[in-house]
Design brief:
15% strand, alpha/beta, eight-stranded mixed sheet, 9 helices, 293 residues, Rossmann fold, globular
């Protein structure tokens, strides 16, 4: 069985359309079902240190929403010197609906399509970042898009069956449908891959990260945190190693600036949707500073 209610654990929302309106905007779905929310709420966290044409799409872990992961995203943004785009999951934060593997995959596809086809970003300038359950949509997307700039996985799982077996043995493996099968997706990933995992992780064992690294045929790096758990990660070590990895393997410093220098060219219509959702008015003169943070 799929057991989405057990797999996804959305917390009580930690933000709304007004508290984080300098970050949130909406990407319109191309072919939404009649019962779905028509837009994907996302956080846009622009680069602060220097102009950048590099963008990281960050898929957060379970039991947190965009508001909770924002401090971590800002830290990664500051270290990598790139923009971050953080799509929310259905049922989390301000996103109505119910989370499922298919819903996360469909939204991930749409977000990347929006970045490359509507904003004009080069797919080689995109880094896919996933943490815990977020490594599922990140790895799946990388497996479908060999030209993507890179893939970074933090505390990844090999699949839901393997996770269930770790906690409940072979019986647990029989009770749940295989989802987020990263071990299988990794076989077709061609971009550089960075993997970080805590050696004291009791939720998803570090052996899963090693299995993914062993199954990766692309250039890759595995880093483990000696005393790290699933929830407590050495962010200094993580950001330092990831920064070095993208510089040496993804060519982020070597490539010339492209269209997305300074700030992402998000259409004003998408920003206006955010303002309308917040019930606020925005003067035309404020467009250029609305997302300064």
């Amino acid at each position: 069985m799929e057991c989405s209610s057990l797999l996804f654990l959305p917390p009580a929302p930690t933000y709304d359309r007004t508290t984080h309106r300098k970050f949130i905007f909406y990407i319109k779905k191309k072919f939404p079902d009649s019962h779905e929310q028509l837009t994907i709420p996302c956080f846009y966290v622009p680069s602060k240190k220097k102009p950048s044409n590099k963008v990281a799409i960050y898929f957060h872990c379970n039991a947190e929403d965009n508001g909770q992961c924002l401090p971590r995203v800002k830290l990664l943004r500051d270290k990598l010197g790139c923009h971050f785009l953080v799509p929310e999951y259905p049922g989390y934060g301000v996103y109505t609906g119910t989370a499922s593997q298919d819903a996360l995959f469909d939204d991930a596809d749409r977000v990347l399509d929006y970045m490359t086809h509507e904003l004009g970003c080069s797919i080689r300038d995109v880094l896919l970042v996933g943490r815990s359950i977020g490594t599922g949509p990140a790895t799946h997307l990388a497996s479908k898009c060999p030209e993507v700039g890179g893939l970074a996985l933090v505390s990844p799982l090999t699949g839901t069956k393997q996770a269930a077996a770790f906690h409940a043995g072979s019986f647990g493996k029989l009770l749940i449908k295989q989802q987020f099968n990263n071990a299988e997706y990794m076989k077709t990933v061609r971009c550089p891959v960075f993997i970080y995992h805590g050696e004291e992780d009791k939720v998803l064992p570090c052996s899963m990260a090693r299995e993914l690294a062993d199954g990766c045929t692309a250039p890759h790096m595995l880093v483990t945190g000696k005393h790290d758990t699933h929830d407590k990660i050495n962010l200094v070590l993580l950001t330092a190693k990831l920064h070095r990895f993208v510089e040496e393997n993804c060519g982020w410093e070597a490539q010339p600036a492209g269209k997305c220098v300074g700030a992402l060219p998000i259409p004003k219509s998408d920003l206006l949707e955010t303002v309308r959702a917040a019930g606020a008015e925005l003067e035309p003169a404020m467009w250029d500073t609305y997302f300064h943070c």
